[in-house]
Amino acid sequence: MRGELLDPFLHYLAVEKGLARNTLEAYSRDLITYLDFLEGEGIASLAETTKLTVMAFIQRLQKKGLSMRSITRALVALRGLYRYLSQEGYLEVNPLEDMELPRLSSTLPHVLTVQDVERLLAQPDAESPRGVRDGAMLELLYATGMRVSELVDLPTSGLNLEVGFVTVRGKGGKERIVPIGEVAMERVRSYLEQARPAILKGRESPYLFLNNRGGRLSRQGFWKILRTYALQAGITKRISPHTLRHSFATHLLERGADLRFIQAMLGHVDISTTQVYTHVNQEYLRQLHRQFHPRP
User: Which range of residues forms the domain containing residue 32?
Assistant: First the structure.
């Protein structure tokens, strides 16, 4: 049942819906967990399931301690699978046809202050190939607001340092053009001229940023690099590659950038996704008020 049902559905999501690789992998894990649950319950076919079956599965996930966000993602995957199988004639009845998803409470993203970012960007050693590479990566990530997956997948052909922009391939393979600041361009240029050839040692690679063996840098590899420099910079708050993306958007908004401009830079399809940064900005202003007003 697993390969027979899941493979066509995931192929449909990738080809016709254009979902990103990371999303497909997450959906695949959720659906495999569901099918394992059905097997444990002695249910041999999805045609035997009902809404109560799905609710029992959700209760199992809750007992395992999964967050509401993860449970909602699993429900999205299940609802999509049942809808697909119903449309394709595999199922006569879709038990989740009228199921509504739980509303998630909007959590504000973690951001760094401008001073935190400046300390972070000052950490890499400008005298070593690795340090030059790391400095260029961090600077480019903060200058463009790219996702870490977009950064590690970025080819050298995506750069245009003469004009000052980078072509980013985002979720669903959609491309967007993002400008680069002078500081980031200078660091990337130094990396291309000095560090990258030293790391490659005569080899070739289409990717801009490479690991120490000259291969494509992984997301996990970049995460470790970022955490190392954050500790060196004395940043104790929680930090991830997405923190730089959030900081990029928040700092632009604080300095008066239009929300539509930030939306285009981040590659958000829906403006409501970008609007979370207005809440971040409001919270920042409230903190300043509490800190400095004589009658907070």
Answer: 2-87
Residues β-bridged to residue 166: 159, 178
User: In this predicted structure, which of 16-30, 50-64, 220-234 has the lowest mean pLDDT?
Assistant: 16-30
Please, what's the b/e burial string for 214-230 (b: 16 or more CB within 10 A of its CB; e: otherwise)? Answer: beebeeeebeebbeebb
List the catalytic residue out of 73, 79, 147, 251: 147
Q: Which of 87, 105, 134 is the last residue of a domain?
A: 87
Q: What's 50's domain CATH number?
A: 1.10.150.130
pLDDT at 295 over 60: no
**In this predicted model, what pLDDT tens digit does every residue of 231-274 receive, in sequence order?**
999 998 878 888 888 888 888 877 777 777 777 777 776 666 66
284 carries an active-site annotation: no
If asked whether residues 39 and 163 sit together in one domain, one would say: no
Is the residue at 102 inside a domain? no
Structure-token match 């041999």, residue found: 44
Whether 29 is catalytic is: no
Q: Which of 187, 245, 246, 251 is catalytic?
A: 245
Active site residue 110: no
Catalytic member of 171, 216, 219, 227: 171
What pLDDT is attached to residue 23?
Answer: 85
CA-based max dimension of the chain: 68
289 is an active site residue: no
Task: Please name which of 209, 263, 264 lies closest in space to residue 241, comparing C-alpha atoms.
Answer: 209
Q: Is 142 a catalytic residue?
A: no
